[in-house]
Amino acid sequence: MTAPVRFVPPDGGAAPPAVTQEPPPPARSLGPFYALAGLLGGLALLIVLRLAWFQIDPQLAEFRRFARQDRGYMTGEIFPLPRGWITDRHGRVLAGARLAYQLDVAPDALRRPGEVVAVLAGVLEMPADALWARLQPNEQGQMPPAVMLSYTVTPRQRALLLEWWARWAALGDQAPIDPARNDVFRFTPVLVRAYPEGDVASNVVGFVTLSDRETRPMWVGNFGVEEYYDRLLQQAWVTIPFYEPYRVTPDQVPLPEPPSGVVLTIDRDVQNLVERILDEAVEEYQARRGVIIVLQPKTGALLAVAMSPRPRLDDYESVLQFLRRFEGQGWNWAVEHTYEPGSVMKPIMLSIALDTGAITPDFTYMDTGVEYPCGGSAPVYNWDYAAHMEQNIVGCLANSLNTCFANIAMQVAPEDVRRYMEAFGFGAPTGVDLAPERAGMFSAATCPDRSRLGFGYAVSVTPLQLAMAEAAIANGGFLMRPYVVQAQLINGRLVPTPYPQVVRQVLRPETAALVNDFLARAMTHDTYENAEVPGYTLAGKTGTAFNPRDPDDLLDATMVGWGPVGDPQFLVLVWLEDPRANDGWASLTAAPTFRRVVERLVVILGIPPEGARQEAAYQGR
Amino acid sequence: MAAVWQHPAQMWNRARQWRGLQAWQRFWTRRGVWWARLVLVSAAALTVVAAHLYLANEAVVLWEDIRTMQYESWQLWWEITTWQTELARQRNAQAMRQALAEQDLRWPAPDRVLYVPVALPPRAAAYAGRIPGVWAPPPKPEAWLPAEYTRTLSQWLAQGGWQQVQDWLGLPDPDVYTDAGAAGGRAGP
To answer: What ipTM did this prediction achieve?
Structure first.
């Protein structure tokens, strides 16, 4: 058994020295200490009480409900961005946006729907029965929680409806709505399309309609720029988050930016001028309709594409009337209407023949008034059924001899006719950035077809196709791709579109210069006195096409011309359908219209007359 | 007798028995002080929590303000968009035409437009061929160093350094003439 450990004092067991015990110090007072603790404890109690009050405060009920709800339900607010703007080349707005409201109504909040519908019909100017039908339960007998009644409520209509709502809510139990509900009417801001220019360039711009998507209606472009650039111009929304302040910094919230859009090559003033001239021409010559195209031959930029009659884009009824009247004939006839152009195709065949070497510039033709290019079955006569005897190329153009050009067409190899016609862009869409576009067609398969191609039959063209083919002659032989949008506005920056584009070189430059020279000389002939503009050297050709074998085929009067020859700044094409005045001859209807356009166009474009240009040239340019 | 091994705690207890507690240690052994310490620490913790809650509340309120302002900026932007379109409507082609008609302005014919030929420089003056380029001399230190680092004391004094010293010391400037004495020490006429 081990001995217990014995405590051994450090001094080896000696008796401890006597220690004199000091008296304990007097106890300090704890009063101030308790006071401080009490104060802080009281503050803590107040904090606890305040936290408890948060749980029962009726003013914070919404926060508590939100805290219990699924937070993903309310994470943001959706703001609309406008559909992209469309402006002319100087930034003048052709299609903009204005603020409106989408109106949703909660059907179960209506105690007496009839009274509410009566007020809604009056304020929104909508038929009451249609509104009533929208507020009925569906086939399953279910009532949706909210029904969209209108997408274009103006701020004034909204104010009126809010006033009615307040008046009803003040009635208490007698109100036709549930006064306790705060979602009887719900107004969501939206931006709707507006066309401030009315009917100017309406055929180029197109229009928008509201898609029938129930969840989030969108504007969808129809025709023209609105349709072609629909994806770019598409209306968008941004979601601004809320109730999650710690997850999103204010820098991440998108602030409004300038709207995106497209800048056209169209000049509003030229467009408006040309439209008015065309309106007058259609009325004066009793035409059914008409088109004028003004473009830059060197680039293919369209300065004006006018049409008469045309709809007003700021008046939806006018658009509907236009579509009903010209049903199936398209929206923009410059790219959607195809027709046999007639004699305006003669410069095309002449340039083909010269470029292939089938004829030489000193070609002469003995006109006997009739030509049998394919034997006796398909005779070709002149417009006046007369014989003009021996003529050179300028004479053939000036007198517009069908016989001469049927003869020229037969001298070109059939394969070359087809190849060059395709190279000029016939039978294929031009690729202009307007939707939709028709291609047209031509036939060089048989001998009669080839002979008729010489004077503009056996081919159907759109006015724009014809204008671009003639522009290839004007600009030295290059087929350009026509375009109407010169830049896109993206995030406030101008991004140019990839134009001008050369599709292909069709003619040798010397051939194009020769044809320009022939046409300019032919323009001095009496036939073209209505198209002459003093001081300017112009080249051009008229064409009056009529197919007596087809009773539905109407007369088409076309004039195409450009100038100044050698440095072409503009090309103007005038097409009038079925003009009754002056027997419909293009030289008496389309040619004067051409002159009216040109003599104002040279002022707008600042093209000095020939004398001033030569003076400038003499000064050492 | 050999020393017996002791645990440090035993040594500590022994020392306490031997020497007793100091006065300041004895204070913390009192029962009321323990409760007070508990309350104090709890209150401090609650105060920190409360401060955080206050700041969080401020953040939420400020966030709401920011959001309200952003919403207002969007509303203003929508109105600007609307008014821009309205402005374009009031200045459209038809309105311009009416304004021209009211002022009896007509469209000019080409022969009524006066084109003034502008003299162009002769071709030879436009481009005179290549000329040799000249390198600029490298910059001296004065160009990029402050003057304090480059000038000598004598230069500094010559450039008004003594005046600067006078300004620092608040000495009267002998060059500035004051009329205070002539007016008898009184301000005003």
So the answer is: 0.78
